[in-house]
Amino acid sequence: MPLTIMITGATAGFGAAIATTFARKGYRLIITGRRTERLQQLAVQLQAEGNEVLPLVFDVQDRTAVKAAIDGLPVAWRAIDILVNNAGLALGRDTFHEANLDDWDTMIDTNVKGLLYVSHAVAPLMIAQGSGHIINIGSIAGKEVYPAGNGYCATKHAVDAISKSQRIDLLPYGIKVTAVHPGAAETEFSLVRFKGDAAKAAVVYQGFTPLSAQDIADVVAYVATVPKHVCINDIVVMPTAQANSTTFFKQ
Ligand code: NDP
Ligand code: 8X3
Predict the structure, then answer these.
(1) CA-based Rg of the chain, rounded to a whole angstrom?
(2) How much is the average pLDDT of 115-132?
(3) pLDDT-derived band of residue 130, with 50, 70 and 90 as boundaries?
(4) 100 is in which domain, residue-wise?
(5) Rounded-to-integer distance, Cα 219 and Cα 221, Å
(6) Which atom of ligand 1 is nearest to the CA of 16?
(7) How many C-beta atoms lie closer than 10 Å to residue 80's C-beta?
(8) Calculated CA dihedral for residues 18, 20, 21, 26, nearest 10 degrees
């Protein structure tokens, strides 16, 4: 029986690249996101390549929808070997006192509460089978804070803490927990952060080679395929031209 991976936020960026990468490795895929058309397109493409794919449309912020989606999984899809908690976003780049409270709410509801809801719904399935691997996509913003990163940095520090806590509580059930913390990667991330301002988003990646979505998919594929007795707990992945959150070598 091929292994099954569930990826949240598979309609773009890291999630789409992770789905494509694991599809090529022969995994069965549960792909999720809010944008139905994009999710359906990816599902059709991967199915055409011979993969079994189950697309599920839900908003990770909506805990009733999350629970309904996982509880409603067809029996043949209830054995989830790997969960990649990838869905997330940054909104705004404002100093603390100028930050928009709705932006904070959306980031906390998505990056923190959404990750908790999905993990909480999937963990019992992994516990029942006595194995599983949760891979949480954190960020360098979860290791260090940077100016005007306040709310987003807080959510990614929470992902770091949740990963450590899941690792302890799920230890007796043979469940691995890995946190992958990328630096700057060119996806739709900055377009979303700057609310559709493409010029502002492009500036973020000027003067150096950022990570690509495929770079992160390759790292996720690596941590997911080490031997059963090995768990990579935590990994920080940066562009070579980025030393930390604020130090870039741009030319
Ligand atoms: P993208 O904007 O390209 O993709 C984000 C994905 O998350 C989309 O598929 C989107 O799908 C999904 N998503 C967002 N909100 C929700 C929601 N409420 N419910 C369900 N799905 C949601 O960004 P990235 O691929 O770059 O980001 C992926 C993850 O990586 C995020 O957690 C981000 O914080 C993190 N990250 C990104 C870095 C970067 O520089 N790009 C660096 C470090 C970490 P849809 O809109 O269809 O719901
Ligand atoms: C995304 C990278 O540097 O904008 O998590 O926080 S950064």
Answers:
(1) 17
(2) 98
(3) very high
(4) 4-237
(5) 5
(6) 9
(7) 22
(8) 120
pLDDT above 90 (res 149): yes
Which stretches does DSSP call E strand in the chain?
Answer: 4-7, 28-33, 53-57, 82-85, 132-137, 175-182, 234-237
**Lining residues, ligand 1, CB within 6 Å:** 8-15, 33-35, 59-61, 86-89, 110, 114, 137, 139, 182, 184-185, 187-189, 192
Q: Report how far ligand 2's centroid is from the alpha carbon of 130 (Å).
A: 34
For residue range 27-62, what is the model confidence (pLDDT) as tens digits? 999 999 999 999 999 999 999 999 999 999 999 999
Query: What is the number of domains present in the chain?
Result: 1
Query: Domain for residue 173, yes or no?
Result: yes
Residue 20: its pLDDT value, please?
98
Q: At 28, is the secondary structure helix, strand, or coil? A: strand
Query: Which residues, judged by CB distance below 6 Å to any ligand atom, belong to the binding site of ligand 2?
Result: 139-141, 184, 245
Atom 31, ligand 1: which residue's CA is nearest? 88
Q: Measured between alpha carbons, how far apart are the two ends of the chain, in Å?
A: 49
Residue 242 lies in a domain: no
Q: What is the mean pLDDT of the chain?
A: 98
* pTM beyond cutoff 0.90: yes
Question: By three-state DSSP, how is residue 75 classified?
Answer: helix
In a domain, 232, yes or no: yes
The pLDDT, as a whole number, for residue 131 is: 98
pLDDT score for 1: 82
CATH number of the CATH domain containing 96 = 3.40.50.720
In a domain, 251, yes or no: no
The protein residue with its alpha carbon nearest to ligand 2, atom 6, reads: 141
Task: Give the pLDDT confidence score for residue 170 in this predicted structure.
Answer: 98
